[in-house]
Specification:
It is a single chain. This protein is of the alpha/beta class. The protein has one domain: Alpha/Beta hydrolase fold, catalytic domain (Rossmann fold), CATH 3.40.50.1820. A six-stranded parallel beta sheet has the order 2-1-3-4-5-6, sandwiched between helices. The two termini are 22 Å apart.
Length: 188
């Protein structure tokens, strides 16, 4: 929670999802400094296994745990319902894309850093998307991943911002800053 948070002014919220083998603290490190500057609250759940449930067999315990964490967060904090994002890196980005499409009535924004795929089970609402990917990503190669995902989302009619950068399987600070600025300014 940023120091500037006060219940008199509803805050934006970002659910931040870690990559495979990661933990909540890994995901938080990506956006924490930017969240403090923008007044954004962060919720960073940890997957029950080494990665998110849909990747290892289908939606289940991770979705249930995230639903509980969101319910508790909504009950404790004043949140801006027009500024609810789901975001992640690598497997977390793939999961963010999937859950963002499934829950577009809840999540207004989806920020995906180096996603590998998307596996939505339904299409609900119309979230906006920010996707970035490194042109030299050897873990999730851009040609097999984002360069396929982005056109699929465009064909589905979603609004999106797409950024390619020179680099590998990472999130450069300038891309993270651009994504947070995009989220903070969307809807103004």
């Amino acid at each position: 929670m940023p120091e500037s948070y006060g219940p008199e002014r509803p805050a934006p919220l970002a659910v931040v999802l870690h990559g495979a083998g990661g933990q909540a603290r890994d995901a938080m490190a990506l956006l924490r400094p930017l969240a403090d500057a923008t007044g954004m609250l962060l919720l960073a759940p940890t997957s029950r296994q080494y990665t998110w449930d849909v990747i290892v067999g289908g939606y289940g315990p991770d979705v249930e745990a995230m639903d509980g964490a969101l319910e508790e967060t909504f009950s404790r904090y004043a949140l801006d319902p027009t500024r609810l994002a789901i975001t992640g890196f690598s497997d977390g980005a793939s999961y963010a894309l999937s859950l963002g499409i499934n829950n577009g009535d809840l999540f207004s924004h989806v920020l995906a850093f180096s996603p590998g795929f998307m596996a939505p089970s339904a299409r609900v609402g119309a979230p906006r998307f920010f996707i970035s990917h490194g042109t030299r990503d050897a873990v999730l190669p851009i040609d097999r991943c984002s360069r396929r995902i982005v056109p699929q989302l465009e064909r589905m009619g979603y609004e999106l911002t797409y950024k390619e950068f020179e680099g590998g399987h990472t999130v450069p600070p300038e891309i993270a800053l651009e994504a947070v600025d995009w989220f903070a300014s969307e809807g103004d």
